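Example 3.2
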Amino acid sequence: MRSRPKTREGGQALIMVTIALVAMSGLIGMAVDFGWSYFMRRQAQAAADSAALAGARAAMTTIQTTGASALSCTNLSCGSQTSCGAGATGAWQSACDYAQQNGFTQGGDSGRQQVSVASGVNSPAAPPPTASNVNVRYWLTVRVSTTIPQLYSAVLGNANATIAARATAAITDYLVNGSIIALNREGDPAPSTGGTNGYGIWQQLNSYGTHPVLLAGSNSTIWTPNNGGMALASNDSGAGTNLGPFTFFLSPYLDTRGNLAGYGGWTATHSYTTQGDGSQFVDPYAGMGQPPMPTTAFAQNQFYGVPGGDLTSFCGMNCAPGVYYATTNGAPSGAPLTNTGSVTFANTTGSGPWGDYVFYGGLNVAGSAVNFGPGRYVLAGVANSSTPVLSFGSGSQISGGSGTDAGRIFIATDANYPGLSTIAPLPSPLTSSSFSYGQINIDAGSTGSVKLYGLGTAATPQNLPTDQNPHGYTLNDFGPAAIWQDQGFSDLTYTTNTTPQMVVGSNMQVDGILYQPRGAWLRVKPNAFLSGIGAPLTAAGGARLITGAVDIGSSGRLVLCTSGCSQGAPLWNHMVALVE
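Structure, written as tokens:
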């Protein structure tokens, strides 16, 4: 039997397996390299994101707590790309710390890691260098990188790979939607004032034994715009309470940290109770300070001593911009300034039409027709705390624009308002201690009316003064405010017997915001009517309320805007966001 010759198939298989093993090793090496690189890139991006957000939030905190300008780098960390190190402070230090907590440190991992920060301010708001689709006021960019060893790539001569990530966080603007924002929270001080059936909010407890931040008397009406609902910050049971059935209630949404109580009828399209804390319950003006004063002092001939405080006799038909105070026998007295005849407050000079006014002692309009031109009206305190700092009395016909000018803002404060003493020093012998806060009383009665257009409510925007407050904000940032109650006039910070309230006791129409701080409140008397301009008959500009709490008397009407009506001029606030 002849034997068959041996073949070389076994050797060929060995060669093929060897080649396959080499290829598989390469694929495994590539998978390890790519997987490790992907993992490290994710780690680097997470570190950059958290560091950028931490830095921007630290900058926002600085603005809110120390008064640093939001439009300059005076007290904020600003500069070009700089490595984290011992010299980092403020927002940069926060960014570097968060990068370290996420595993990345300048010079870390035996010198392989790099962490750097850059930031800046844009005035006006503009895109940051790394993101072209968003306008921001302050931006902070963090870059992190590291080198990692390679397996398969090392065979090809690439022993290391560089992993890098970048993130930018910024302070940017967002639109505030709420038409009624009640800021008071559980445990806030409750003033001792009387009243029943609404109009007497803290004396009238609800069925839970708590003080509501929105109390509505029987047969009252609440109607908010179709793009602005309600936010009640208190988490008390019965944060919103009605003491009898509503005549009408309609709101696109109602958010509260607490619950609703009373007779029901809270027919919001979306009603959310026991909500977690959120931005809708925060003062939209938080951290911005207060509306600025003029930067140019009033001229000496713009200080007007008014005999007996009688503006009607003193001004004639027109009161020019300036500083007004009552006198007795030629000496400043601090008494209220009173108007009983038809008069206009307007700038009729070539520098018009905007006018700046300061009233020491309070302004009382009694049964007369008064037109307030576009301007800033500073009500700088009263000598007697029981005297209103602003009063529109029975029969008064108050006109404040027609929706085509720059608007007007009434600032209810005292003589210590920031910047006031520099531009309008008190005439001797008056001192700042001579004046205190006073409440606002809008009660023109059944024969009177009040109609006011706030800042920036014109359909065609008009130029406003560019003065800045210590936080870097201008009047434009406070639009569309119409009445502003000093943030210091609050039961949280002010401990005298003066009541920090605004009372509406007649028909009042507003296109803009009525602002009061947390710890203050708004009262709408029984049968009174507070509405947006044109509501409820036309789809015109709406009124908005930002206050501590709201008390609506029986049959009182709060018609901020009707169906189909928007809130009017927008209100913007600031938030920290990751933009890249």
